[in-house]
Amino acid sequence: MVAAVLRRTAILVVSVLAASIVVFAFMAVLPGDPAQVALGVSATPELLAKTRHEFGLDRPLAVQYLGWLGGLLHGDFGRSYVTGEAIGPQLVDRLGVTLWLVGAGMVVAVVIAVPLGTLAATWHRRAAGATISGLSQLGVAVPAFLAGILLVQVFAVGLRWLPSGGWTPPDQDVGDFLRGLVLPALSLGLVQGAVLTRYVRSAVLDVLGQDYLRTARSKGLRPYPALIRHGLRNAAVPVVTVLGLQLTTLLIGAVVVERVFVLPGLGSLLLDSVAARDLLTVQGIVLVLVVAVLLVNFVVDVAYALIDPRLREAGRERVGSR
After folding, report:
1. Which residues does the UniProt record annotate as the domain ABC transmembrane type-1 (predicted)?
2. Which domains can be identified in the chain, with CATH numbers?
3. Is 303 within 8 Å of 238 (Cβ atoms)?
């Protein structure tokens, strides 16, 4: 098990390094001159040359990459070409908002999907099970931003129960923070919960047909206790993999949802930086998002091995054969 974790950690490090090269190369080939963007169209050639030198854009690309990578290793993402502000502190502040949103959205999705997916599987021959499956199929077709707009229209504009947007840090006012987080988290979580419900239903249906569950019921366990005690852990193995994919989807969906609810997260900063052609900031944000996806996949791989005892046994057998 330890060897497997170390191997996956090495793969993660190599993947992050490769991702940094790809992100840097992609930004380097984009058309446009950051110095021209910073100074405007009326800048003189002399001033443009001086600004390119200050930005380090007159150096070879390999040198620029190594300088950027060295800064990243020390937590320095550089300074914005447009505003001149340090990028790292902005990313930290905005990332905190995005993580709150994604984490709350995932909680909503799991709270919805696990019970409803389980019920849809156990009731698959009943009208209630078919209804849950139909509603989940409908939820899959609804984009997160549309769900957000509908939620704002009902709960903010119509009922006036919750704010339609804005952000209050939790250390300032916990009540306002939670009220402002409800609708964005629901807009993300409801859609992803619908997707996850279908996977939970399929996983539980597969478990219900296994011999060990029928054996547990033949020994006197009632259906639901037998499923909870012996089936859900095995059903969780494929669901954990899907959860990792869902988490990355939530990260991408947060970009649009933050715009709908005027949240100062990483997605809003990305869109603003793209509009301002602040390529160095865009480069840092994209790298952070890619690394976040790689980390999620790493955690899913480790969790998969912890949940599924067969993988642990396979690892022990490989070690013993050596």
Report:
1. 95-300
2. 2-73 (no CATH), 92-276 (1.10.3720.10)
3. no
